[in-house]
């Protein structure tokens, strides 16, 4: 596969290979290099075998977790191999080359054909080579890939060069070597200084993705599985399918931007098909997935055919796997109350009718309850150094960028400062974080006016997983200055100077009265109370008329149906707070629920004395029923464990076509169990045997999913012992018993 750019042909597939002859004659057979004796001596040397020292090198390069029989190294760090010759190697007389090739058109000038010398003729190339040791016929050679080299799978050859030509070792897939980005090397674009960061953002293969609402954050574990068998090849296949030129694959910025486009299949043969319709009968619902491994392996096994279906957290989870697998430090971010702003005008408009009810026909904008994207850590040499570090990259298809559905990378630090003149897609992300919610109301003649502006609702909370913990870390301050602070105003002014439309609706007069919606954690199917707190900050008594609209809503903020509309009146004394309580019955919302069980409440208030209006909204996420997991047995590599998963249907309706997934890297490959139906009050009990393959802390994830019930998940951490730990303990106990016995026999 090649892409032609001008006069040049760019190889764009790691899989396509050119055939190199085992013997390549000298270009001038009549005038061979060196003297005849030297040519004869060199020709008599043959490489018999190449030992890639896979186990030792993988341990040194921190790639031993990859379930892959080939050598995997990180660029910029030396790895050693042992070449066995048919006679003793003479470094002063013999001329031997190591060749590393990638793609179908190897070219030294493009970094796809690397030749390093381990003999008398030295070559000045970006990859470094040295003879480490000579012991008889065995030569240990150290190879250091350039810290800017192409990332991918290289074919390896040993070539003995003589005046007659070049004699290569036969093609052998076992000697192929994968080269990855290197977060441990200061010379690499993705270098991270702290080891605890590298452990979390490169090596952790299970994470937590946050959803729900900003004041009721919920979690779901996600199996990134970047080390699982076949995943690395699947990630390279993704780049190949999109015809990403090999010469671009050493640049982290380019790989990240391409990865953003390649995770979705909106305009290419990307990995995932996005679907927010609620109809998933032709694929797997987004809420049913437990991790990336199943998705990427399915994509690869079906010939790069896009996998159905995904929503934002699935796109973010799979992109995180793609990035970490290639060695890039990455993490998943959740932005609560995320504006979807097509025009980049920092305005999200909510239309109310004259009674204060939400006008669905006129309200086009939406605010996602939450939106997940990724951050990747790297140097951006195209930006000032202060904007290096974490970069936003988003693969959920929302808007096109340079003709493709992708977003980023864009600097988090630059976003915070309102510096939007740098690439890529900073204005779009800035709007997701900083849009104002503008409430409009139409009078009896249909004329609309602005009644209230909320500058603090969007980008309310931004979180990611803490290092070495399943708790979330609040990183809102990395993206935004405190609301109404001087720094925040300066950032908005900077954004306006960079082309963001001016907030021409300011100054907007405050009413002096605030309203707030509160609700406890509510289980799906329960009645509950909604509290409207009215705070009067004026010196006058206020009478306020309140209209509350309750809508069933998708997590994207798109409303499905209105199930509640109620009017209330309240009187609030000066500098006092009054609470108005509204009862919500399960029977009102249950029949209208859509996936993820979100309810949106919008409150409109009119202060009689001030003749001023105000409004606010709140999303309530209903908690699904519990899924329980229990493990019995001794968690140890190679030892069988029994897993029990149980679920009780607490509702008065049948759950149909239920899927139950069990997943956990190092513990079990994804298991899928299907149930035709679960009757009201009925339960399922699923038992599965697992045999851990890797020691350490592992996470077992379970997920139950059907059209009537989404987001039913649970997880359990298992500390798996090494295979010998138990044996050593037993031997120690026996020795203690013998000592005690001897002491008893010899007082």
What features would you highlight for this structure?
747 residues, Immunoglobulin-like, 13 helices, elongated, disordered C terminus, disordered N terminus, seven-stranded mixed β-sheet, 40% strand, six-stranded antiparallel β-sheet, 4 domains, Coagulation Factor XIII, Chain A, domain 2, alpha+beta, single chain
Q: What is the compact description of this entry?
A:
This protein is α+β, with helices and mostly antiparallel strands.
Characterize the structure shown.
It catalyses: L-glutaminyl-[protein] + L-lysyl-[protein] = [protein]-L-lysyl-N(6)-5-L-glutamyl-[protein] + NH4(+). One of its GO terms (biological process) is blood coagulation, fibrin clot formation. Belongs to the transglutaminase superfamily. Transglutaminase family. With 747 residues, this protein is of the alpha+beta class. Strands 3, 5, 7, 8, 11, 12 and 13 form a seven-stranded mixed beta sheet that branches. The chain has four domains: 2-180, Sandwich (Immunoglobulin-like), CATH 2.60.40.10; 195-497, Alpha-Beta Complex (Coagulation Factor XIII, Chain A, domain 2); 513-621, Immunoglobulin-like, CATH 2.60.40; 627-726, Immunoglobulins (Immunoglobulin-like), CATH 2.60.40.10. The protein has 13 helices and 42 strands.
Radius of gyration: 31 Å
Tell me about the biggest sheet?
A: 7 strands, mixed
- Helical amount: 10-25%
User: What percentage of amino acids are in beta strands?
Assistant: 35-45%
Number of strands: 42
Tally of structural domains: 4
N-to-C terminal Cα separation, in Å? Answer: 83 Å
**From the helix content, strand content and strand pairing, which structural class follows?**
alpha+beta
Supply the number of helical segments.
Answer: 13
Q: CATH fold name of the largest domain, please?
A: Coagulation Factor XIII, Chain A, domain 2
CATH architecture title of the largest domain: Alpha-Beta Complex
- At the first level of CATH, what is the class of the largest domain? Alpha Beta
* Mean pLDDT rating: 89
What characteristic shape results from the CA principal axes?
elongated
- The CATH superfamily name of the largest domain is Transglutaminase-like
Low-confidence stretches: 1-8, 29-42, 726-737, 739-747
């Amino acid at each position: 596969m090649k892409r032609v750019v001008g006069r040049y042909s760019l190889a764009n597939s790691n899989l396509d290979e050119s055939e190199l002859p085992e013997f390549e004659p000298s270009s001038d057979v009549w005038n061979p290099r060196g003297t005849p004796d030297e040519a004869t001596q060199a020709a008599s040397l043959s490489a018999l075998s190449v030992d890639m020292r896979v186990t030792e090198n993988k341990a040194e390069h921190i790639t031993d977790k990859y379930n892959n029989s080939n050598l995997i190294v990180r660029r910029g760090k030396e790895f050693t191999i042992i070449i066995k010759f048919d006679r003793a190697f003479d470094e002063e007389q013999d001329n031997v080359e190591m060749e590393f090739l990638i793609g179908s058109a190897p070219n030294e000038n493009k970094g796809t054909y690397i030749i390093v010398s381990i003999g008398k003729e030295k070559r000045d190339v970006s990859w470094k080579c040295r003879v480490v040791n000579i012991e008889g016929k065995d030569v240990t050679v150290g190879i250091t890939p350039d810290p800017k080299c192409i990332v991918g799978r290289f074919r390896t050859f040993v070539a003995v060069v003589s005046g007659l030509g070049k004699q290569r070792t036969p093609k052998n897939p076992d000697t192929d070597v994968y080269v990855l980005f290197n977060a441990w090397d200061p010379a690499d674009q993705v270098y991270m200084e702290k080891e605890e960061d590298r452990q979390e953002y490169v090596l952790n293969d299970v994470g937590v993705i946050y959803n729900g609402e900003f004041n009721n954050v919920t979690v779901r574990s996600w199996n990134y599985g970047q080390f699982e068998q076949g995943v690395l090849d699947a990630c390279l296949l993704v780049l190949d399918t999109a015809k990403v030129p090999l010469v671009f694959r050493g640049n982290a910025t380019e790989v990240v931007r391409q990865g953003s486009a390649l995770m979705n299949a909106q305009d290419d043969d990307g990995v995932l098909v996005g679907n927010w319709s609620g109809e998933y009968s032709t694929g797997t619902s987004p809420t049913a997935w437990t991790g990336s491994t199943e998705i990427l392996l399915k994509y690869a096994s079906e010939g790069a055919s896009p996998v159905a279906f995904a929503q934002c957290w699935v796109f973010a989870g799979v992109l995180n796997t793609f990035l970490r697998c290639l060695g890039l430090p990455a993490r998943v971010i959740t932005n609560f109350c995320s504006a979807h702003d097509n025009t980049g005008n920092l305005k999200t408009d909510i239309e109310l009718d004259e009674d204060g009810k939400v006008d669905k026909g006129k309200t086009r904008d939406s605010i996602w309850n939450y939106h997940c994207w990724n951050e990747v850590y790297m140097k951006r040499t195209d930006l000032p150094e202060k904007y290096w570090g974490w970069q936003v990259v988003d693969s959920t298809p929302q808007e096109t960028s340079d003709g493709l559905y992708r977003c980023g990378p864009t600097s988090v630090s630059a976003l915070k400062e309102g510096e939007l003149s740098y690439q890529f897609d900073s204005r779009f992300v800035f709007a997701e974080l900083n849009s104002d919610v503008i409430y409009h109301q139409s009078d009896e003649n249909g004329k609309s006016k602005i009644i209230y502006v909320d500058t603090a609702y969007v980008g309310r909370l931004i979180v990611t997983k803490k290092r070495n913990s399943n708790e979330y870390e609040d990183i809102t301050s990395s993206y935004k200055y405190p609301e109404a602070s001087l720094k925040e105003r300066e950032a908005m002014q900077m954004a306006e100077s960079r082309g963001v439309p001016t907030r021409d609706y300011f100054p907007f007069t405050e009413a002096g009265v605030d309203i707030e919606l509160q609700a406890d954690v509510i289980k799906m199917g329960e009645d509950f109370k909604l509290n409207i707190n009215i705070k009067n900050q004026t010196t006058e008594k206020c009478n306020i008329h309140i209209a509350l609209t309750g809508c069933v809503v998708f997590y994207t903020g798109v409303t499905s149906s209105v199930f509640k509309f109620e009017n209330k009146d309240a009187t609030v004394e000066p500098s006092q707070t009054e609470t108005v309580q509204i009862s919500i019955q399960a029977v009102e919302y249950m029949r209208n629920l859509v996936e993820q069980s979100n309810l949106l409440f919008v409150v409109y208030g009119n202060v009689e004395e001030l003749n001023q209006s105000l409004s606010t909204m709140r999303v309530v996420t209903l908690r699904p029923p519990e899924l329980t997991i229990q493990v019995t047995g001794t968690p140890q590599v190679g030892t069988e464990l029994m897993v029990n998963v149980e679920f009780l249907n607490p509702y008065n309706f049948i759950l149909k076509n239920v899927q139950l997934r069990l997943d956990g890297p190092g513990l079990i490959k994804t298991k899928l169990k299907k149930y035709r139906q679960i009757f009201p009050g009925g339960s399922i009990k699923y038992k599965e045997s697992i045999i851990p393959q890797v020691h350490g802390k592992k996470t077992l994830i379970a997920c139950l999913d059907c059209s009537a019930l989404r987001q039913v998940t649970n997880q359990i951490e298992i500390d798996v012992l090494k295979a010998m730990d138990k044996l050593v303990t037993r031997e120690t106990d026996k020795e203690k018993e013998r000592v005690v016995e001897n002491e008893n026999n010899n007082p």
